[in-house]
Amino acid sequence: MQTATTLEVLRSAVDQLRAGGKRLALVPTMGALHEGHLTLVREARRHADAVAVSIFVNPKQFGPNEDLDAYPRRMAADCALLEAEGVELLWAPGVEEMYPAGFSTTVSVAGVSDGLCGAARPGHFDGVATVVLKLFNQVRPDVALFGEKDWQQLAVIRRMARDLDLVRPHVEAIVGVPTVRETDGLAMSSRNQYLSPAARAQAAALPQAMREAIAALAAGSAAAPTLAALEAHLLQAGFDSVDYAALADPLSLAPLDTLGDAPARLLVAARIGGTRLIDNMHVGPTGKPE
Ligand code: PAF
């Protein structure tokens, strides 16, 4: 695996990997890699001849009171995992390389960025969209893969890719990869390691409560009482607070009052033991594209 920390080295590595019309996939990450990221890498391999992974803890997507400094950084362990997966290229720029002095551009995707996590974390999706557009321009991948665990992030990136004509010829496809879960159903996340053993055990209530809510919605319950019951379940199970629980259109993320014939998404963010966990699940008919 070649590691690039400067744009100059990255560009020549990318040129070599793309020589002869070879296809390149990009898996953007912030490191602290776990099985969920490795699933993205394996899926990337199915779409391309070579796989590039970026590791960059993006300061622009953290709010002033968020966990930027505490965010886990484990470059040596991450490199070993990527080497074992046969990744061809690691792009690991420093903050100065990504945002040189005088950097003053922000990409903002209105609408889909505004509610849910966007309401709780003002500016977060501007930071995500800005860095992802830069990563696309830097690596010029044919395909880029993102976890469905961050469903709103995926919706923001898809909207940006459509609005800014990135999808062809720049990035042929944005691929969403289903969430990888622990055996008790908790969605894998780099932030799970912040949980104490007690909070980690209680956190399994999140996917359980969501599955119960999905069963209720499928049986005809309206969204409002179902989401209120979901919140009550989480608080009773030991969660400190619920930022939001929403039934939404999967693409626009507009809230829905009831489950209709079309696919919908159940999205939740809740805090336990000082850690904010998010999860989302498909609701409604299977097999219909979202
Ligand atoms: O999902 C993440 O890890 C980050 O938000 C991303 C997409 C790498 C942008 O910094």
UniProtKB/TrEMBL annotation:
Catalyzes the condensation of pantoate with beta-alanine in an ATP-dependent reaction via a pantoyl-adenylate intermediate. It is found in: Cytoplasm. Homodimer. It comes from the Bacteria. ATP binds at residues 30-37, 147-150, 180, 188-191. It is an enzyme of class 6 (ligase). Belongs to the pantothenate synthetase family. This is Pantothenate synthetase.
